[in-house]
From TrEMBL:
Species, as recorded: Marivita lacus
Coiled coil region boundaries: none
UniProt cross-references to Pfam families, sorted A to Z: Ribosom_S30AE_C, Ribosomal_S30AE
InterPro entries noted in UniProt: HPF/YfiA_ribosome-assoc, HPF_long/plastid, RHF-like, RHF/RaiA, Ribosom_S30AE_C, Ribosom_S30AE_C_sf
Domain of life where this protein originates: Bacteria
Name under which the protein is recorded: Ribosome hibernation promoting factor
Length: 187
């Protein structure tokens, strides 16, 4: 497994890195079958330390956690507890998907655009109806079942997830509705 333990304008010492690796190994050995990489970023916000952790599993799931504390070790422990809780909640579902999916999730490339939100004109009418593209990026679309997509959206805390449906071989969308339920768009 690949570990990336860094600090934003903070020196992360060997003792902290060893502690992080040991704790994560113990937690992942308990819950996750095939983790691929973990990114842990420490930073400082005013008087508090912030720990952000992103875990990528070979099943395509991404689990994220973030915690604040006045001590750097306490920030990591709080973040680790949140990650542990997420993995514990989804342990049964993750195990079921490990059995169904012998290969890692296939990712497809797609273009992603950021559009300008406002048009700056004198009389508040745009010159054309075409939106202004601010940025263009490459993004990955995973090939998942609907259950896996919902699980990944919940683990990552995303409001919406675009995925390629394994069963129907088309692009689908799952999203969190305002009433708290999950919506699924299958064109």
């Amino acid at each position: 497994m690949l570990y990336q333990i860094t600090g934003k304008q903070i020196d992360v010492g060997e003792a902290l890195q060893t502690h992080v690796k040991t704790e994560l190994d113990a937690m992942l050995g308990k819950y996750a079958g095939r983790p691929t990489d973990v990114t842990v970023v420490f930073s400082k916000s005013a008087h508090e330390y912030v720990c952000e952790t992103v875990l990528h599993l070979s099943t395509g799931l991404n689990a994220t956690a973030k915690a604040h504390a006045t001590e750097i070790y306490a920030a990591f422990e709080a973040c680790s507890e949140k990650m542990d809780k997420q993995l514990r909640r989804y342990k049964r579902r993750l195990k079921d998907h490990h059995k169904d999916r012998p290969e890692p999730v296939e990712l497809f490339g797609a273009s992603s655009y950021i559009l300008a939100s406002e048009v700056d004109t004198i009389d508040d009418e745009p010159e054309s109806l075409q939106p202004i593209i601010v940025a263009e990026m490459e993004t990955k679309i995973p090939s998942l079942t609907v259950g896996e997509a919902v699980m990944q959206m919940e683990l990552a805390g995303l409001p919406v997830l675009v995925f390629r449906n394994d069963k129907k071989d088309g692009v689908n969308v799952v999203y969190r509705r305002e009433d708290g339920n999950i919506g699924w768009i299958d064109p």
